[in-house]
Design brief:
The chain has 247 residues and is of the alpha/beta class. The protein contains 8 helices and 9 strands. Helix 3 crosses helix 4 and helix 5 runs antiparallel to helix 7. It comes from Fervidibacillus halotolerans.
């Protein structure tokens, strides 16, 4: 029996072809949690084996949440069933969901289809995060801090309680959210990466982002000055899932 299940989307984080679940698992293990990774594209059928009530973390990745791929369609159905079930359950019986980047977008799309939209200028690098409401997800985290961002989609969803927002391209969109009734939490930024891991990620995708967005991510990697460690957010999520520390 595992403490937490990590659903891994597509894409790699380095030239060793390690997936987006790797830093999540590594950080959770430092906090003493046992993990089970389910690579969604290859093993989405294993979602049905996850025990009721076990917390789930959905990783970042390189697939659009509105892509019409079999594994993604089935994953959305699975997440949708959990959310619908959570509506009817007391806090102590809910299955807690935490989405990171792609994972946050996936949760939002399941709750409100069409809530994720393309961002013309990607958010890449060290970005400031300002919390506008308290949440147990950010316990012992400063109200203003820096986090690693690597995404080109935005979330606008009225069904999610805003914890942090971003103002960009004349718009406001969600940077972190929760819906305690649904047992859902999410961040567009990546709390799981170390500085070295994030540098490697940026270097790995440099050719793709230069071709698609004319952005030199290797240059961004070389210019990083801060190495924020936000892994406590993962630990906070796990504490909520196991001691129901909601307020």
């Amino acid at each position: 029996m595992f403490d937490v299940y990590v659903l891994e989307s597509t894409g790699y984080i380095n030239h060793r072809k390690e997936g987006y679940a790797k830093p999540i698992v590594d950080r959770l293990q430092t906090f003493g949690y046992s993990t089970k990774v389910i690579p969604l594209k290859e093993q989405y059928r294993e979602l049905q084996s996850i025990p009721n009530g076990k917390p789930i973390i959905i990783s970042g990745g390189m697939t659009e949440v509105f892509a019409q791929e079999k594994w993604l369609i089935e994953t959305k159905k699975f997440i949708g069933k959990i959310i619908e079930s959570n509506k009817q359950k007391p806090v102590c019986e809910k299955t807690f969901l935490f989405g990171i980047c792609f994972g946050a977008q996936l949760i939002s799309e399941v709750i409100q289809p069409g809530s994720v939209k393309f961002l013309h200028e990607p958010q890449i690098g060290e970005k400031p995060v300002t919390l506008c409401h308290p949440s147990p997800l950010f316990e012992n985290v400063a109200d203003h801090f820096y986090a690693y961002a690597f995404h080109y989609n935005q979330i606008q969803n009225d069904s999610l309680f805003l914890l942090s927002e971003v103002k960009k391209e004349g718009m406001q969109f969600i940077n972190a959210f929760e819906n305690q009734d649904l047992g859902c939490f999410g961040t567009q930024f990546h709390p799981e990466f170390t500085g070295q891991e994030f540098e490697t990620l940026l270097e790995y995708y440099n050719d793709q982002f230069q071709n698609q967005f004319q952005i030199d991510t290797s240059q961004i990697a070389r210019s990083l000055k801060l190495y924020p460690n936000n892994a406590i957010i993962l630990d906070n999520f796990m504490k909520m899932a196991y001691i129901n520390k909601l307020s």
